[in-house]
Amino acid sequence: MLTSKPPPDYGGGYSTTSYGAQGGMGGGGFMGGSQGGSQPTAGKGTLSKDTLRPCTIKQVLEASQPFPDAEFKIDEVEVQQLTFVGQIRNISTQTTNITYKLDDGTGSVEVKQWVDVEANSHAPALGLLAAGGGGGAGDGKKPSSPLKEGEWARVWGRLKAFNNRRHVGAHVIRPVTDKMEITYHLLEATYVHLYFTKGPLEPGAGRGAAGAGGGMNAQADGGYGNGDMGMRPDMKTLHVGVNARRVYQCLKEIPQSNEGLHVQNIAASIKMPVTDVMKAGDELLANSLIFTTVDDSTWALLEF
Fold first, then answer.
1. Alpha-carbon torsion, ordered 224, 229, 231, 237, to 10 deg
2. Residue 286, Cβ neighbours under 10 Å: how many?
3. H helices of the chain, where?
4. What is the pLDDT of residue 224?
5. Which of 89, 98, 99, 278 is most buried, with most CB under 10 Å away?
6. In 41-117, at which residue ranges do the beta strands (DSSP E only) sit?
7. 46, 185, 195, 205, 264 from 80: Cα distances, Å
8. 288 pLDDT higher than 80
9. CB atoms within 10 A of CB 14
């Protein structure tokens, strides 16, 4: 399918857009500040815990996990916090949690929202309602959900796996009151997917198609084709992965001798783990984009 500070880091989050929504990091244009997060720093962990990835349920279900307890990856990029929208197909309430079955047309997934039992035990006396909804869990009653089956909802949470079955642990789940939010989210998720798999567009790209649209053309400069997310990847690297493109760009831009750059220097320059640099190098070598020089860990660009 078709999301702060320049330049961007392909191994970390993503830059804001000019759709008037500021991407997944700026509140989605519908809930100001709800999706706020700091710019991630590449390196160990790749993404900080404050970053947020908009996605579809299909992407949630197909996210890769190198080994148990490892962070999930979508488009080769680690994701910790994610957000998506979906229609509620089923609601199951337990004493300690409420489980929603959400479907967005690309797939369905369970979303669990845990209930604060202690807070709910005091809710009647305080006239308050803890996360998860109505009746107090402290008095043995099951909580009730403020959401209804058939409604659309937006979820913020983390992807989890238990007994080889995936679910999302929700930090926040709220009803979608503006149906345009559904369309917006799907566009944003597609935008981010294309950014990580294809790279940002060349500055000014898409102006021709948007020219007849007037208002769309006004956003072309500051939107997907504005180059705010960094330099456009070399055409030679469009068919390789994100990490491979970063390594290639490093070899292309950093001053070096005829011997090229050592893996350790590349890793330090782009703040990427050495193991990931090695994998990216293998991919570039397999595609005849670089070659080894003084040893197997020193590379230079293969110009042609």
1. -80
2. 11
3. 57-62, 117-126, 180-198, 207-211, 215-220, 242-253, 263-270, 274-286
4. 35
5. 98
6. 52-54, 72-74, 77-79, 81-93, 97-103, 108-114
7. 10, 18, 18, 32, 27
8. yes
9. 26
Task: Pick the closest to residue 171 from 285, 273, 304, 52 (CA basis).
Answer: 52
What pLDDT does 54 receive?
Answer: 94
Please calculate the CA angle 139-130-159 and round it to the nearest 5 degrees.
110
Q: Please give the Cα distance from 191 to 222 (Å, whole number).
A: 14
**Burial zone of 97 (CB within 10 Å; 0-12 exposed, 13-18 middle, 19+ buried):** middle
User: Which band of pLDDT confidence, cut at 50, 70 and 90, is reported for residue 89?
Assistant: very high
Contacts of 91 (CB under 8 A, 6+ apart): 98, 99, 100, 101, 145, 147, 148, 149
Q: Give 51: exposed, middle or buried? Use CB within 10 Å, 0-12, 13-18, 19+.
A: buried
Q: From CA 217, how far away is CA 210, in angstroms rounded? A: 5
Tell me how far apart the alpha carbons of residues 254 and 267 are, in angstroms, rounded to a whole number.
Answer: 12
7 cis-preceded (ω within 30 degrees of 0): yes
Q: How far is CA 278 from the centre of its chain?
A: 24
Count of all residues that appear for the chain in the document: 304
Q: Confirm if 137 and 94 have CB atoms less than 8 A apart.
A: no
Rounded to the nearest 5 percent, the helix, strand and coil shares of the chain are: 30, 25, 50
Q: Which amino acid is at 292?
A: T
Q: How far apart are CA 302 and CA 304, in angstroms?
A: 6
How does pLDDT run across 92-144, given as a tens digit for each residue?
998 889 999 999 999 999 999 988 766 555 444 433 334 444 444 445 566 66
> Residue 193 has which token pair?
């997917």
Q: Which pLDDT score is estimated for 36?
A: 40
